[in-house]
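Human: I hope this is not a bother. Would you mind checking the protein record under this note? Thank you for your patience.
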Amino acid sequence: MCSNHCLNCKHVRETPIKLIRYLFWAMKVSIITYLIIFGLLPIIFHYSYTIQKKILFLNFVQWPINIDLSKPELVGIKGTRNFYLKTNQNVKIGLWQTLPQSLLNDSTITTDDDYEAALRNSSQPVFLYMHGNGGNRASSHRLELYKLFQSLNYHVVCFDYRGYGDSEGADLSEMGIVSDSKYVLEWLLKLVNGTAPVFVWGHSLGTGVSTHALALLAVENIQPAGLFLESPFNNIADELSEHPLSQIFKHLPWFHWLIVEPVYNNYLRFESDKHVEKIQCPIMILHAEDDGIVPVALGEKLFKAAVKYHGNNTNHIQMTKIDALHGLGHIHICRYKALPNIIMSFIAQVRKNQTD
């Protein structure tokens, strides 16, 4: 009896000790984890330009995977050719050109020359699409938008920036992908040569790319017929501060110094709220109120900056906010039922203004 009682007493004494040891171990692991996540990783990010570029551009996130971009028919898009351009910086860029609905059954359009002639001789609007920071030109939500343009009887040209898709992996930077985009837009404008209106459509990071490229072209007195900005931010500094992943780190008193400043100092700025001042063509901003990647407030900031520069002229700058009830988020504005009418009305207004 006594022996068993003593053993029980020993067990009772050891249980709190084990619990204390476990709690101490758990606390130590938690402290180390916190220091790694909120101390070491932000410091690595602060001093590594390579990591900053990887996180901003996400060009390593390729979807769909194992896709042969030279065969666009494999992803179910009809009347499309794959081709390549060499930019003035000697960077090979992969592109698709998609025919409008009215030309899909034209059996005479087979070669690259035929496709270029279709652009050169058409009076139908032409859209140049600049994509966001992940995936490639075959990503599913982009295909949905191309098909929408096609159904509206518009030409579409889309491409992958350097380091994306099957485009050449040249130095990835803001000025690098802006230069690629500027070159493609200049090539398209020269090819069309005023026979049809050329519109630029930028999505997410592509809004920063397109506004910067158009601002550079505006200095040369070159501009497209209009610019659509889907889910835009006003600048990368604000986008970094408001991105969902950043909310984990925003409690840190050194957040701005660690995360925002190095990106800005390394000229990854995408300051659309500054570039928009130089853009003279009409602009349409489209933003879903339930966008969880680029908050609609940043689109509103860009709109206000444009109004500040150009005045509250609806012929120049417009914004359409889409109710969260539609559940379109960051990438599915292409499914908004009113989108075709928005696009057609904007184009009709631009053409009317050009003839007045």
Remarks:
- The mean pLDDT is 91.
- Strands lie at 80-86, 92-98, 126-130, 155-159, 198-203, 226-230, 283-288, 317-322.
